Backbone:
């Protein structure tokens, strides 16, 4: 026993000298874990998009329910790809740095968040594999995945709020934080307001035995769009001023607009959903969508003012930012057209699907890839292959437009493009859409090739490879980013 106490005391003294706790996972490792999770979810979602065009053989040799496959596709791309990358990945990596904190205020809570997300994507993967042969287990897998994701997001949102509000270094006021941090704050606030309602909905229907995965996906569709859009705006707000070579314009206005939109959407949607127990209908979705469009429009105006007075450098992250602007603007215009009274587009299923993808999902992919190429040097200390990165962008951009612009053109007819083998006069549009899907999937494999080149042929980068335009606190630190406890000016967690 004395020797055990002596060893324990030595371990504590060693930890005090090195500043490291035993079995401690810092914010960099957590961010890398969420980024890896998002890459896996994105690849699965890209492969599943091919199966939406027909029944693949790996679904037990039988055709799965198209609505169930679409639900799997949406859950993978939103909850287990876009959000882990934009919130869990970039948020864990750079939020403590921007706040001047030593680490996440609640690191064990963040570890539990990552573990719950991993369990959720594993459950969803088993449900996809069994969707053709065992629909009952697929439904149960969606329930398990949604519960795990909800717990993961709530834990992560609590950690982000604690880091921003309680873990900032002395002298770092809230209004000094960049738009990226404000958008992370808005996303966490929106999650705290809406995700508990989703959990209550799930447990209520599970206890009643009336759970339907498709209905559950539609129930949370509006908050999903907001949760993806807000952090994507934050990532792009970090990229655009860097390559414009000047300080951002309308940054505080954009930050406050994002926070107000999160609070408004969260409060309105949560109240309507708790009152009726169903997805809100009538004016609530229209008002919530209008608030999101207003926040996005203010941010886009700020980017335009920043680029107008600066000199845009055509680097890969800025290409993804331009793709984000085009896809987001298309989605915003389409949404406004759908909200117009008496518009025939508002009742077209294919138009609604294309509007969702163009306005949110594809824009989120642009934000995730743009943030990856913007920060990969800071995260790994290695430079990316320029030619492959540009090839991935053009494959994705052209593929996404070919996939969903035909659906916008077919919107007034109400004829969906996805089902294969149906005789109609839209064969050319379906062919374009199929070819666009292939290009988008090819871009995912080009991204895998980029990762392989990063690992096999490393190329060292400077602490600030972007020049004078990069003024964030992370660019004043070495590459790769050191442990926060070793950074000058950092305070202990």
Residues:
């Amino acid at each position: 026993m004395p020797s055990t106490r002596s060893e324990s005391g030595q371990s504590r003294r060693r930890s005090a000298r090195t500043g490291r706790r035993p079995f401690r996972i810092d914010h960099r490792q957590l961010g890398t874990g969420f980024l890896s999770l998002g890459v896996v979810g994105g690849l699965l979602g890209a492969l599943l998009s091919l199966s939406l065009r027909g029944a693949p053989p790996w679904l037990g040799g039988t055709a799965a329910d198209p609505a169930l496959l679409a639900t799997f596709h949406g859950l993978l791309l939103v909850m287990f790809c876009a959000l882990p990358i934009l919130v869990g990945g970039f948020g864990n990596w750079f939020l403590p740095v921007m706040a001047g904190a030593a680490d996440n205020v609640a690191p064990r809570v963040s570890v539990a968040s990552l573990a719950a997300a991993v369990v959720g994507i594993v459950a969803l993967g088993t449900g996809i594999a069994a969707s053709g042969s065992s629909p009952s287990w697929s439904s149960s897998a969606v329930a398990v995945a949604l519960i795990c994701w909800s717990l993961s997001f709530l834990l992560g949102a609590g950690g982000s709020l604690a880091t921003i509000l309680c873990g900032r270094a002395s002298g770092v006021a809230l209004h000094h934080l960049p738009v990226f941090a404000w958008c992370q704050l808005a996303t966490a606030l929106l999650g705290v307001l809406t995700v508990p309602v989703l959990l209550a909905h799930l447990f209520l229907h599970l206890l009643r035995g009336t759970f339907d995965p498709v209905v559950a996906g539609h129930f949370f569709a509006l908050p999903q769009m907001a949760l993806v859009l807000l952090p994507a705006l934050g990532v792009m707000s970090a990229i655009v001023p860097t390559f414009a070579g000047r300080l951002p314009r309308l940054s505080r206005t954009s930050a406050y607009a994002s926070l107000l939109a999160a609070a408004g959407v969260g409060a309105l949607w949560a109240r309507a959903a708790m009152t009726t127990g169903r997805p809100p209908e009538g004016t609530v979705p229209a008002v919530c969508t209008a608030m999101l469009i207003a926040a996005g429009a203010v941010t886009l105006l700020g980017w335009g003012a920043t680029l107008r007075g600066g000199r845009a450098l055509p680097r890969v992250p800025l290409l993804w930012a331009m793709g984000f602007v085009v896809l987001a603007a298309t989605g915003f215009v389409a949404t406004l057209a759908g909200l117009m009274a008496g518009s025939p587009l508002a009742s077209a299923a294919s138009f609604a699907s294309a509007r969702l993808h163009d306005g949110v999902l594809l824009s989120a992919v642009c934000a995730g890839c743009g943030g990856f190429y913007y920060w990969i040097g800071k995260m790994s200390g290695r430079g990316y292959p320029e030619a492959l990165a540009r090839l991935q962008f053009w494959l994705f951009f052209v593929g996404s437009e070919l996939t969903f612009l035909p659906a916008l053109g077919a919107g007034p007819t109400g004829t969906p493009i996805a089902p294969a083998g149906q005789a109609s006069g839209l064969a050319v549009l379906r062919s374009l859409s199929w070819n666009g899907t292939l290009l988008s999937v090819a871009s995912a494999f080009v991204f895998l090739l980029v990762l392989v080149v990063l690992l096999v042929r490393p190329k060292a980068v400077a602490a600030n490879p972007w020049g004078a335009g990069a003024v964030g606190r992370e660019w004043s630190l070495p590459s790769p980013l050191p442990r926060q406890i070793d950074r000058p000016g950092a305070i202990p967690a």
Q: What stands out?
A: The longest helix spans residues 66-99.
